[in-house]
Amino acid sequence: MPIPYETSGNSCNKEVLSELVHGMQNNLSENDYVSVIRSGLERVGISSFSYVHLGCSPREAKEATIIGNYPSEWVHNYKEISLHKIDPVIAMSACSPKPFFWDEMFSVDDSGIFNMSSSYGIERGFSIPMHEPGYAFGSMHFSTKKEDQEFVGAIGRNYSFILSLSFVAHHYRPILEGFESNNSLTKREAECLQWVAAGKTYSEIAMILGISERTVKFHAKSLMVKLDSVNIKQAMSQAIRMGWI
C-alpha cells in the first residue's frame, strides 16, 4: 500500500517532536521512555506501538529487545518462543530501509503470527526500519485493529512526525539491563577479537597485548558466550556481521 504522504508541515507536530526530543535526552527508564512516546503518538491519533532492536539478522539473533505498550502477554509469548526469527514484519524490516504497511505481508505470512496477534488487537500496522552498521537494526511498529478506518490517514497526515519520532526513539532507546549492555564488547575483548581477525594465535595476541595467554583465552571464552558461538572463528564472523569490529 502506498504511503499517503502529508502535503504540508504541521507546526503542532513540530512542537510535539521538540518536546519529545527534550524528554528523551534525560536518560529515561523503560517505563518513562514508553510514556513519552505514547504521549506524543496519542496527540496524532495513534495509540499502540512497539520498538524492536536486534543485534544481527533475525534468524541468528538469540533474543530481541522489545519496548512499547503492546499487551504484556503477547510480548511475553512472542519472546518466549522467539517469534522474531519467523515474523515477516521483522524480516522485512531487516532487509529493507523502506517504511511499509503490513498489508504487504499478509500474502507471504506462513508463520501464523498475524492470526496469533489478532487476538490481542494487533491486526494492521505500519513499520519503520532503522539500520545500523553491520546487521544490527531497530524498527518502530505502530498497530491497530482491522476495523480502524482512520489508521492509514493518521499515518499519512503525520508521516514526517512519525518518521522523526521513530529515529529519535531509536537513538535514545534505553539499554536494558542484562541485554544489550551485556552484549557489548569490553575494550580488551575488542582488541583480542581484532587480532584474531588479523590471523594471530592466542600466544601471539598475549605477546602483543602484554598479557598472559590464559587471559587471552578467558576473553575469547567471554566473546563466544556473548556472541552465542561455538568457537572463536564463529564469534569473529558474528561480530563482523553485527558491526562490532
Report the CATH C-level class of the largest domain.
Answer: Alpha Beta
Work out the strand percent: 5-15%
Radius of gyration: 21 Å
Can you write the helix and strand succession as a string? HHEEHHEHHEEHHHHHHH
Using DSSP, what is the number of strands?
Answer: 5
- In percent, how helical is the residue content? 40-55%
Outline: elongated
Mean pLDDT: 84
Contiguous helical run count? 13
Distance between the termini: 38 Å
Explain this structure to me?
The longest helix is centred in the first third of the chain and has 14 residues, at 11-24. The chain has a five-stranded antiparallel beta sheet with strand order 2-1-5-4-3, sandwiched between helices. The protein folds into two domains: 11-171, Transcription factor LuxR-like, autoinducer-binding domain (Beta-Lactamase); 184-241, Winged helix-like DNA-binding domain superfamily/Winged helix DNA-binding domain (Arc Repressor Mutant, subunit A, Orthogonal Bundle). 49% of the residues lie in helices and 12% in strands. The mean pLDDT is 84. β4 (124-131) and β5 form a beta hairpin. The protein is an alpha+beta fold and 245 residues long.
Can you summarize this structure?
Keywords: DNA-binding, Transcription, Transcription regulation. The chain is of the alpha+beta class and 245 residues long.
